[in-house]
Amino acid sequence: MTETTTVSNNKVPSSLTQVGITTKYTFLDYFRSRRFFILLTITLLISALLTVVVGYYRPESFLTSELDFYANWWGTSATYVIILSGIFFGGDAIAGEFQNKTGYFGLPNPIKRSSVYIGKLLAAFSASTIMLGVFTAVTVSNGLYYFGLNVPYQFIESVFFAWFYLAAVLGFTFFFSSLFKSTSMSTIVTAILFLFAFSLIQTLVSTLVQIEPWFILTYGAQIIGNILTVPYPQHKVVTSFGPGGGAGAGIGGVSLTTFNVQIPVGLAIIGVYFIVTAILGLVLFERKEFTG
Amino acid sequence: MPSIEASNLSKHYGSFAAVSNLNLKLEGAKCVGFLGPNGAGKTTALKMFTDLIRPSSGEALINGVNVHKQKKKALESVGTLIEMPEIYPALTPREALTMIAEIRGVPKAERKRRVEEAVSEVRMSEWIDKRVGKFSKGMKQRICVASAILSDPSIVLLDEPTTGLDPRGMSEVRDIIKSLKNKKRLIFMSSHLLSEVSDVCDEVAIIDHGKLIVYDTLSNVTAKVSGGDNVVEIGLRNTVDVELVNTITAKLPYIAKAEKSDGNTFRINFTGGLDTQEKLLADLVKMKIGIVSYKTASSALEGAYLSLIKDTL
């Protein structure tokens, strides 16, 4: 047998370095993609609509105080920007490696699947952060216009909560992306869950069964808006309607129970969702095979 | 010495055995063709050598390292092209290949040069800074071939590398494989194109129904099924004269049969191995008959292949 000639002096970098490499190039791919510009357009559209509506109609609920402004502007819309970012950047992140066959290019190399997974998660987080950053910038710009430099500290807290929530949403979308090999399936399931199913379950559980929906991620995300309400909303609110309504519903009256997540619980829900779903997604990705 | 080894390697999907107890060891600098019909288990085996699929049992070893257990170490000196990969569409070949070069630890000072050389080798230099999303399948396949050779690996695993390429592209990829052989690399290549395997490979492994049927040198495999004869195809500068063929047959006793194939080529069946094949070439050159090509006849391999596959049906 013939000996081979001396091979090049390559030195495979550490897994951590490879995470950085994957992040860099996946982010570059996201940044130049059509989806990035579509989402940027949607984010700017939401911002523009709010700017025009508030500027033209001057609604009292927005302009009473700076906290009310940020609660109504940011508190109601930021979660949608986050969810859309999760769907756009996370929905097909892993499923696409199988369906689009990009996995055949990157994975048969000396790199662990976990490095690819974490790298892609960080790239999606970075791209989503840009969207959230754009929305934050427009919110603050409008706030400065109406209330001057007086940005309430609760808003800054809310931005951090939103960022944390973004991580959990991406962890969740990556889990579904790892679960399915079809990009459309993973994207649709994620969209349905975040935009409809979670809200529906949350409402049904709290109003009908009167149980705190601590197991729903979107419930935990309420801290993003609640922090902008002073005083912070009570944990449990029972509203009565009908005969004998008021303080206590009489015979024939109806009671409606709503729960407002408290900050430690909200942070715990978001944190647990992120850790559990991101790890489960990784385990699924590690085990999934490139068949067919 | 680079090596690829399948040790009792199996992959089952329920009761279906895609690969069954595959035992194969390839060592040294050479090109080994991996042949078999559709669904025989070629791609599944190659995927187990790149950890895209986990073995149900047994081991896929590269340089003695278990690919599934120590993927990073096992694949550090392996270039691969499995199926027809897609590249992130918004990246350019330069960026996509630089990513692979970084992942594979190509020194920073060499990266740019290596990427440009690899792209040049697959004749894609003018597209190096265009986004891959606009490329045809064949162009993407060329970039994937470039990615397989980029880091100057000692082992190259290729799964039907000429798929999707036009005839010129196929010829260029074959030239690349030949140049890898000249650089003393171990190449393991699956293909459906027997002429391609005859052209570039030294040895063949034939697999069917997940089982290895034969692994030997090209000449031995063809000899086994042609009653001990090897077949070479000789191309002449001028039209083949039947009298010349008869004269050659008469002069060289180890020739079993010689016949004209078409205008400028004729085939010789001979008994013996590589030594005889070498002697035959030397004798023919001495006769000054105007030889311009000399190769193992692809139809001989085809005959061997069909015979071996038929035997397993």
Give a verbal description of the structure:
The complex is a heterodimer of chains A (292) and B (313). Chain A has 292 residues and is mainly alpha-helical. Chain A contains twelve helices and two strands. In chain A, helix 1 packs across helix 7, helix 2 runs antiparallel to helix 4 and helix 7 runs antiparallel to helix 8. The longest helix of chain A has 35 residues. The N terminus of chain A is likely disordered. By secondary structure, chain B is α/β, with parallel strands linked by helices. Helix content of chain B is 38%, strand content 30%. Chain B has eleven helices and 14 strands. In chain B, strand 12 and strand 13 form a beta hairpin. The interface between A and B is large, with 41 and 55 residues.
In short:
The complex is a heterodimer of chains A (292) and B (313). Chain A has 292 residues and is mostly helical. Chain A is built from 12 helices and 2 strands.
Most extensive interface: pair and counts?
A-B, 41 and 55 residues
- SSE order of chain A, one letter for each helix or strand: HHHHHHHHHHHEEH
What is the distance, rounded to the nearest whole angstrom, between the alpha carbons of the first and last residues of chain A? 36 Å
Helix content of chain B: 25-40%
The largest pleated sheet of chain A is described as: 2 strands, antiparallel
Rg of chain B (CA only): 21 Å
N- to C-terminal distance of chain B:
37 Å
Total of DSSP H or I helical runs spanning 4+ residues of chain A: 12
Mean pLDDT of chain A: 91
Main sheet of chain B: which strands, in order across? 6-7-8-3-9-10
Assembly context of the chains: heterodimer
Overall pLDDT score of chain B: 90
Indicate the percent of residues in helices of chain A. Answer: 55-70%
Detail the poorly predicted runs of chain A.
Answer: 1-6
Question: How would a crystallographer describe the biggest sheet of chain B?
Answer: 6 strands, mixed
